[in-house]
Amino acid sequence: MTSEPSTRSLPTGRVSGLLYIRDSVGQVRKHRHNVCGDHHLCHRSFEETYFILCDGIGSGVRANIAATMCAHRLMHLLTHGIPLSRASEMVVSMMHRARTEVGIPFAAFNVAHILNNGQYTVVSYESPAPVLVCRGAAESLSQSFLTRGHEVVAESGGHLRHGEALVLMTDGVTQAGLGRVKGTGWGEERVVAEITATLKRGVRPDQLPEKILEQARLLSGGSHGDDTTMAVLSCRQAKVLNLLTGPPRIKGADREFVERFMTQEGRKVVCGSTTADIVARVTGQPLKVLELSTSFASPPTYQIPGVDLVTEGAVTLNQIYNILEEDLEDYQGGSCVGEICRMMKSADMIRLFVGGARNLGNQGLEFKQLGVLPRSLIVHLLIEKLRKMGKVVVQEEG
Questions:
Q1: Which sign, positive or negative, has the C-alpha torsion 29, 34, 38, 39?
Q2: In the predicted model, what is the mean pLDDT of residues 144-169?
Q3: N or C: which end of the chain has fewer CB within 10 A?
Q4: How confident is the model over 201-246, as pLDDT tens digits?
């Protein structure tokens, strides 16, 4: 009889090599207008981040409609598999028509596409050049000018590293002070110089929008003469959480399912006693009881080398869902429940490995009496809540 191959060397990967893009946006509307003519959208996945900033022509409601339509059309194309070059060409073709045809809304835009390894491309149309923040200073990115859809667009590219950032802005920033300062307003060069000076004063990149927009207001005589938006896309190492719950649908798939979980980068949590037994068997590591349950609110905890936290399944997931949005700063009860909630709140990206095997033990009347939802349903609800909290969540089934 042959023994199963050892998996003791499987990496647990507490630190993630993925990069996360945090967007910090400052936006103010034109003086004496009720709505802003700029609009922005951000979409993240484990693979990439798209950030779109659109500036509708004119001001007020008409500009807002133009910017919103442009942003959503671009995002729809990009998130449905259309490459950035083709998506921008399709939208720019519409803008070309808007120059001569009545009734077609016109908007300028900047679109940033950033992969999870930091590689980025920015396409700019009728907008200020993107700015790179690196080593405490700012510089305008060099651009290549191309003809797409009978219009000229600019393209920048490069590689973001941990601690660096991209800055996108509308011309409400670069044209601040128009008529009050020399030239056509503040200007791109002086904006870049001001960003560098602000950083030198100890301001964090995510605080730049507030500081730069305030300076733009002062240059314009105390009120904004145009809709004004600045977005800072800061790059940092992603905080990744992997959670495994439930045996796979097919028993013979135990090894593949566990190995897929164990080789992921980031912190690891196992929810489910049967699941924990499977993980221990596949990895060849001992399963140790740390704390038995003393009440319904305190599920038992176990230990498996290479896993950050091991506890019960459906009951724990239900309790996590119930208190996830609560303030847990002074929360002492439920030990592992509170700890997993804190992990989820601090994570940027969460992978849920969900086994498809049915757990008949969770179908009893006592579970229904206590309001404990089955794993398949509570995982679905938990994903919805996490996404509303801004987390990037992916479910992998076994």
A1: positive
A2: 97
A3: N
A4: 999 999 999 999 999 999 999 999 999 999 999 999 999 999 999 9
Residue located via tokens 């992990």? 343
Neighbours of 108 (CB within 10 A): 21
- In angstroms, rounded to a whole number, what is the distance separating the alpha carbons of residues 62 and 55? 11
Domain range spanning residue 385? 240-397
Burial letters for 269-279: b for 16+ Cβ neighbours within 10 Å, e otherwise?
bbbbbebbbbb
Radius of gyration of the chain (CA): 25
- Same structural domain for residues 83 and 163? yes
Task: Among 198, 222, 237, identify where a domain stops.
Answer: 237
Together in a domain, 224 and 275: no
The DSSP H or E segment spanning 342 is helix 336-346
Domain check: are 37 and 164 in the same one?
yes
Do 248 and 380 lie in one domain? The reply is yes
Residue 252 CB partners (closer than 8 Å, separation 6+): none
Q: What is the mean pLDDT of residues 59-76?
A: 96
For residue 239, give the DSSP letter.
Answer: -
Residue 4 lies in a domain: no
- What integer pLDDT is reported at residue 289 of this predicted model? 93
Do 259 and 281 have their domain in common? yes
Identify whether residues 252 and 263 lie together within a single domain. Answer: yes
Domain count, the chain: 2
Is residue 243 within 8 Å of residue 203, measured between CB atoms? no
Residue with tokens 């400052």: 26
Which residues lie closer than 8 Å to 204 by C-beta, 6 or more apart? Answer: none
Distance CA(53)–CA(112), nearest Å, equals 9
What is the length of the chain?
Answer: 398
Residue whose token pair is 């910017």: 67
- CATH code for the domain in which residue 26 is found: 3.60.40.10
Helix (H) / strand (E) element for 195: namely: helix 188-200
How many other β-carbons are positioned within 10 Å of the β-carbon of residue 209?
23
- Torsion sign across C-alpha atoms 257, 259, 263, 269: positive
| Structural tokens at position 255 | 């090894």
Among the candidates 237, 265, 300, a domain finishes at 237
d(CA 287, CA 367): 26
